[in-house]
Amino acid sequence: MHSYTDILKLFETFFAKHEFPAHPKNLYEPCSYLLHMGGKRIRPVLCLMSHELFAELNENAWHTATAIELFHNFTLMHDDIMDKAPLRRGFTTVHVKYGLPSAILSGDVMNIFSYVHLNKINTEHIHSVIELFNKTAIEICEGQQLDMNFEQEPFVSVDDYMQMITLKTSVLLGASMKLGAMLGGATAGCSDLLFRFGQTMGLAFQMKDDYLDAYGNSDKTGKQIGGDILSNKKTYLLAKAFALANESQQEQLINLMKRTDENKVQDTLLFFEQLSIKQTLENEIIHYTNQAFELLEKVPVISKRKVHLYELAQMLLNRES
Question: Is the Cβ–Cβ distance between 311 and 3 less than 8 Å?
């Protein structure tokens, strides 16, 4: 069994073999630019670690992991466009550097290349793999649409927020686990447990993102701190604050959201502090992480083979970027 760090190195070696065509340059260079920003490659590594619970890593697993990473980066490219984000991992975003039309088309072609790699899979599970991959892609689009719908709403409930991040973020982590398990020959019950583990860990992962956006260090996250607050993005922090606030406090929060001055982030964080929102979010992250551990414990594989998945989950919980 390989650790996260070991599999990451192996995956980077395989992933480096994927090269986009040289021409047209303004279509493919933005793809390479985004992929070379780095990243933790969490989703493909989860696929590979899940596969290795049941079988040795093989070409089918590597190509599936590559497809997952290409698809994920396609969604990031288009998300940055929709969010009007200036930075990604500390670098200028693709649409800012190369222009909006190139970013849209480059994202599209990157998505298509994910299916080029899926087409290289040689296994009796190919139809199940494509079915799950497509289902997950549709759900991510649904989640992104809900996220954009929320922009038109003054506030959203915590339940609506959790549904959105389940679709937009956590299903891909769950599917990455399930795809790896399926290709490794796991039973349907094992595959489903690993899906639920990945999905639940994904909820904690996204909530940690919300936390880092408000309370992280921009030098470590590579993002503008308080960016979600400045754009009035519907996060767990905002949904929970509105749910816990009394009528007077809700009015205060509405007024904070209308502001555009340089003190908006600081004053909003002070408002959150009055309602102990930071501590509430920290507790929720721990809650979902513990749920994920319970699901992983139920997977009928000897414990020592699951050690590195436990370590990875802890790393995601404690990360600073």
Answer: yes
3-class SS at 88?
strand
Q: What is the mean pLDDT of residues 184-212?
A: 95
CATH topology of domain 4-318: Farnesyl Diphosphate Synthase (1.10.600)
Q: Does 321 have pLDDT greater than 80? A: no
pLDDT tier at 85, thresholds 50, 70, 90: confident
What is the pLDDT averaged over residues 298-321?
Answer: 88
Q: Can you spell out the DSSP letters for 121-182?
A: --STTHHHHHHHHHHHHHHHHHHHHHHHHHTTSS---HHHHHHHHIIIIIHHHHHHHHHHHH
Please report the pLDDT score of residue 272 as a whole number.
97
pLDDT value, residue 299: 95
Give the pair of three-digit tokens for residue 221. 């996250």
CB within 8 Å of 75: residues ≥ 6 apart: 140, 144
- The residues spanned by each domain of the chain are 4-318
